[in-house]
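Board notes (copied after class):
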Amino acid sequence: MSDNSFSTTFGPSTPGLLNLVAGNTFEATITNGLGAGGNIAGAATSGAVVGDPDPAGDVCSNPKRTQITMSGKTWAIC
């Protein structure tokens, strides 16, 4: 699926997936209090996803990794 993919996001799979599905990587909020460095732009507690954090509320998420929820507006292409 990655062959000949020209997206606006470079990096790990999470921002690429968010960009593909929602058209937006903003606004993620850290829910488990772990570090934002490398996961949220500017190492803030909320903002654009730039790393590969786990989704909050997923039974497969690792509690030792940063977990996020998304609350930004989703853009649909019609």
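Comment from the instructor: The helical segments are 13-22. The mean pLDDT is 83.
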